[in-house]
Amino acid sequence: MGFALIALRRASRSSTSVFNRLSSSSPASISRVLPSSYRWIVSTPELQNPEAATATTTTPQPTQPELIHPPRNPVGGARVHFPNPDDAIEVFVDGFPVKIPKGMTVLQACEIAGVDIPRFCYHSRLSIAGNCRMCLVEVEKSPKPVASCAMPALPGMKIKTDTPIAKKAREGVMEFLLMNHPLDCPICDQGGECDLQDQSMAFGSDRGRFTDVKRSVVDKNLGPLVKTVMTRCIQCTRCVRFATEVAGVQDLGMLGRGSGEEIGTYVEKLMTSELSGNVIDICPVGALTSKPFAFKARNWELKGTETIDVTDAVGSNIRIDSRGPEVMRIIPRLNEDINEEWISDKTRFCYDGLKRQRLNDPMIRGPDGRFKSVSWRDALAIVAEVVHNVKPEEIVGVAGKLSDAESMMMLKDFLNKLGSNNVWCEGTAAQPCADLRSGFLMNSSIGGLEKADAFLLVGTQPRVEAAMVNARIRKTVKANQAKVGYIGPPADLNYDHQHLGTTPQTLLEIAEGRHPFCSTLLSAKNPAIIVGAGLFERMDKDAIFSAVETIAKLGKVVRPDWNGLNVLLLNAAQAAALDLGLVPETENSIESAKFLYLMGADDVNLDKLPGDAFVVYQGHHGDKSVYRANVILPASAFSEKEGIYENTEGCAQQTLPAVPTVGDARDDWKIIRALSEVSGIQLPYDSLGAVRSRIRNVAPNLLHVDERESATFSHVVKPEFCQKISMTPFTSAVENFYMTDSITRASKIMAQCSASLLSKK
Amino acid sequence: MFATGAARLASKRLLEIRQVFRQSPQTSRSLSTALNYHLDSPDNNPDMPWEFSEKNKEKAKEILSHYPSNYKQSAVIPLLDLAQQQHGGWLPVSAMNAVAKVIEVAPIRVYEVATFYSMFNRAKVGKYHLLVCGTTPCMIRGSRDIEDALLKHLGVKRNGELIAARYRSCEVTKDGMFSVGEMECMGSCVNAPMIAVADYSNGSEGYTYNYYEDLTPERVVEIVEMFRKGEIPPVGTQNKKRIMSGPEDGNTSLLSDPKPPPCRDLNAC
Amino acid sequence: MLGALTKIGKSALNGIKEKGIGGFFKELKQDGFVRCLPDGNLLQTKIHNIGATLVGVDKFGNKYYEKLENVQYGRHRWVEYGEKTRYNASQVPPEWHGWLHYITDHTGDELLMLKPQRYGVDHKQNFSGEGDEYIYHSKGHALNPGQKDWTRYQKWKPTQP
């Protein structure tokens, strides 16, 4: 005690400002008895001292407030967008002035000023809850610390983020949070990327004062994807808000009260959402973790590769985390224009399909009908021999739905050199109009859908065909109260919609202006029509498209400032294939084919293929078509190669190899290049760069990576057609959301999902 | 000398800490009446049909009319209360689903409310649900004795203490008449100790929720026996010498007429 | 210093008197005085021990000394390992670690009372470098014999004709 007193006297003599303020406002005797290590909590001195307050208000300080910190860059590259420059207000964060638009919260203002406020419950894409209290900051003239995430910034506000009050407040909050939090970081999968862990390094104490028994909560079963350890939960309600607002499944809730509070579904219920995996990312602690990834790896062992997803046509930006030669998990990457920061469960959990059913050796089918492994030389020689013995018109090539632009370019060039132009990509078999890009792209762009205020979905179920587009539509419906009309088979869309009909009859009614939904379309400012690419398979597709165009004309959907006539593609390869002109010359070429080159095409219908046709399957998974193949050429999957993919809105993106490929597999374009040499018609491309310069001649937009190239011409220049609309109802293009391609069909997790989640629906 | 003394003190303190840890967690009393998640049982599962009775449908409509049509969800608490009265004092999960359907929200939003408020019972209670106040003023005036007397007389266990390991709920007497729960302050501190009796014996029409105050362990047993006979004991204070919350034997202070409130001289300003 | 030396001499003579010359040398060997000859560290520790107070001995035979006078602050606590030949810092059990590193003033004997009895495991020293069986190798490591058959992917097997 004596030591403390001496220290205190010395401290009060040396003029630290805090002490001076305090001793002037409070009896010195009180300050004397406090130990020197005590961290002072003083509210703003002006409040305690009325004279000082008036002095500061009447005489504004002539000089700029002293810069405590040098100007900093915004946190995480936060951008400020001023919708109306007059609404800009100025606030001071740690004495540093920042201009922000009106309506921003204190936390956002701090982010723009480059101060990262600790937070648990606040998430920029979810509604504000303000229940974790971790983001407390001091605001001048406010008697208490304020929760910055829920406090709107006001003009001239003086925010202090690193004062003793703010720090003490956060330390208090942290102590309460840690009170009931188990100390199981060593066995927790979130360890190393846990918000609570990180922030307790800054605000946590090395010991707690809580001597009671810690709370424990029963774990919930949320299905095969999300593992729950509810005792770790800190009740930030991010998952509840995500499920309610973004995923649109109101399953999760906050149950109970006080210390018995817990997150749960109350009744036994699985989370049947196609976006449920995202709760793993938004959970700031280890309460919700990935079930397939549980206890597999630590995040610091993983190497991240920024690449894109190919399981649907959205091209979500992902990061493949690999350890050595193994893909350990897939997590989303931020891309405001495409997937924001979510990805669908198929994207996230299909990775175990990359490790199963892989083709790793070239194989040929012997005379006894059995496959045997051979060397590349032998396999290519056999193919080259066959290819010369068939007539050019009997050669057919099909690219799979996971093919990259380079390999499709190579395939087309190879077959063209052989004299055949019967090459297409899965989903483009029925000769869609590939000449006008506006005829197969999402013209309003995925991000642009947010501007729409009325949707007409024709023969498409975005929820299963492109979950991220569906999330965007849902966001728009929630934000703008946009109306959604849907024509197609009964579907489970997770937003308010009117089911207008199941046949093209409804479409005709709307086109003729007889349908009640017409008024919605006409009164909408930015109406959007989304046509499913499943319609490409219909015989009357031109007639349907013309009906859609009539509606577009009627509703002024295509204007110079807004193009709302969209096609939602189904697979990752489709857009690039159409850009490169991979459409067949004749519709039923497969029935007369003698040589069929399948480049990863597994969903192509081979029933009509003649029995004596020679089938080459080049791909990475032993899926459906392998069983018909005569020669198997192993290729690398999207996680193992560099390739360009164009997504449904026309944005070219690039995958990067995250892991080495398996066995003897090679990149698709290299295989075709080698095959062309063996068959004596060598293609002049020796590197990926050479293939790309060839692509530059055909479709230069594919090389503008990460840029969306919108379609220039619109439908006005479309050729005439003579087709009649048939009245067969629309069918759903995707039967099983979890299993659409060879990778997802090989995945065990996806099989579990379709078994447990789809049956519940 | 000093060091050894300090060491001895320290070791003693450490022993004390250890003693605290050694004690069983039974010292903390759990106040929740039921689990925060649902477990299917024969009389409580989502497949059980449940609907408001015709009379209560009218009432529900009346309740809904208090709120704007786009804020139907505001009626969740009165509707849950109505459903609870109709179902004999507790809410099966199918009743909550029915309420969710009426107010057009997802069932989980109703579960959230029902689990939050301790007056919604999600497990079976007796026809007379006796709620003993356990907050400080009542506790000082002997609410623990009241509770013990009740439990002993009825032969049931307190809420929160597991009876059937699977369904944690208040234990109901064998004849289904009584159950005992604990409640926090009900605002009758001046007449402590007190119990509240929720009477579900006559459905939602004859539902009452009465306070019995100034209790003694003997008196509370008498009250229970009167209920058992079908009588309704006099509500309010059980101390015959008191009128309402006034002092025993009449008022002792504030006997004169109160002074009129000071009136501002309006002409002065 | 001289006084201390005479003290040591006296205690040595006493020892010889009590146990006889053979017993005395045996004890010398046990206490590591013989080991002092090739091992300077141990010798220095032994010299350091002169005049220090023995605070405690743990069950591994490590002796914990403290000396408060005439010693630099921060160097006033030390350990003489029970193991005289291959000693290392991980032989200090956790209950004494705090005392030894000035984290706490509670001695290991006091802190031992806080050790959980149901699940507290016995202290083990770090066996790194003490033999292959103590070294962790990840799966697929060449020195991890049991798991060499691990494959990172499962190849397609042409089962159907």
Automatic annotation (TrEMBL), chain A:
Enzyme Commission code(s) on record: 7.1.1.2
Reported cofactor(s): [2Fe-2S] cluster; [4Fe-4S] cluster
SUPFAM superfamilies attached to this UniProt entry: 2Fe-2S ferredoxin-like (SSF54292), 4Fe-4S ferredoxins (SSF54862), Formate dehydrogenase/DMSO reductase, domains 1-3 (SSF53706)
Cross-referenced PROSITE patterns: 2FE2S_FER_2 (PS51085), 4FE4S_HC3 (PS51839), 4FE4S_MOW_BIS_MGD (PS51669), COMPLEX1_75K_1 (PS00641), COMPLEX1_75K_2 (PS00642), COMPLEX1_75K_3 (PS00643)
A Gene Ontology term for the protein's cellular component: mitochondrial inner membrane
Reactions this protein catalyses: a ubiquinone + NADH + 5 H(+)(in) = a ubiquinol + NAD(+) + 4 H(+)(out)
Stretches assigned to the 4Fe-4S Mo/W bis-MGD-type domain: 302-358
Keyword line: 2Fe-2S, 4Fe-4S, Electron transport, Iron, Iron-sulfur, Membrane, Metal-binding, Mitochondrion, Mitochondrion inner membrane, NAD, Oxidoreductase, Respiratory chain, Transit peptide, Translocase, Transport, Ubiquinone
Domain 4Fe-4S His(Cys)3-ligated-type: 165-204
Single annotated GO MF: 4 iron, 4 sulfur cluster binding
Domain 2Fe-2S ferredoxin-type: 87-165
UniProt GO BP: ATP synthesis coupled electron transport
Its biological purpose: Core subunit of the mitochondrial membrane respiratory chain NADH dehydrogenase (Complex I) that is believed to belong to the minimal assembly required for catalysis. Complex I functions in the transfer of electrons from NADH to the respiratory chain. The immediate electron acceptor for the enzyme is believed to be ubiquinone. This is the largest subunit of complex I and it is a component of the iron-sulfur (IP) fragment of the enzyme. It may form part of the active site crevice where NADH is oxidized.
Cited NCBIfam families: NuoG
Record's protein name: NADH dehydrogenase [ubiquinone] iron-sulfur protein 1, mitochondrial
Organism this protein belongs to: Aquilegia coerulea (Rocky mountain columbine)
From TrEMBL, chain B:
Binding site for [2Fe-2S] cluster: C133, C138, C185, C189
Pfam families the record matches: 2Fe-2S_thioredx (PF01257)
Domain of life: Eukaryota
InterPro entries found in the cross-reference section: NuoE-like, NuoE_dom, NuoE_N, Thioredoxin-like_sf
Entry GO CC: mitochondrion
PROSITE patterns: COMPLEX1_24K
Co-factor binding comment: Binds 1 [2Fe-2S] cluster.
Needed cofactors: [2Fe-2S] cluster
Coiled coil stretches, renumbered: none
Any one biological process term the GO annotation gives: mitochondrial electron transport, NADH to ubiquinone
Keywords: 2Fe-2S, Iron, Iron-sulfur, Metal-binding
One function term, GO molecular function aspect: NADH dehydrogenase activity
Region annotation (Disordered) ranges: 235-262
SUPFAM superfamilies in the record: Thioredoxin-like
Family (UniProt): Belongs to the complex I 24 kDa subunit family.
Protein name in the entry: Uncharacterized protein
Automatic annotation (TrEMBL), chain C:
UniProt-annotated location(s): Mitochondrion inner membrane
Reported function: Accessory subunit of the mitochondrial membrane respiratory chain NADH dehydrogenase (Complex I), that is believed not to be involved in catalysis. Complex I functions in the transfer of electrons from NADH to the respiratory chain. The immediate electron acceptor for the enzyme is believed to be ubiquinone.
Name of the molecule in the record: NADH dehydrogenase [ubiquinone] 1 alpha subcomplex subunit 12
Record InterPro entries: NDUFA12 (IPR007763)
Coiled-coil portions: none
Keyword Electron transport: yes
Membrane topology: Peripheral membrane protein
Gene Ontology terms: cellular component: mitochondrial inner membrane; respiratory chain complex I
UniProt main location, coarse: mitochondrion
Keyword vocabulary terms for this entry: Electron transport, Membrane, Mitochondrion, Mitochondrion inner membrane, Respiratory chain, Transport
Pfam family, one: NDUFA12
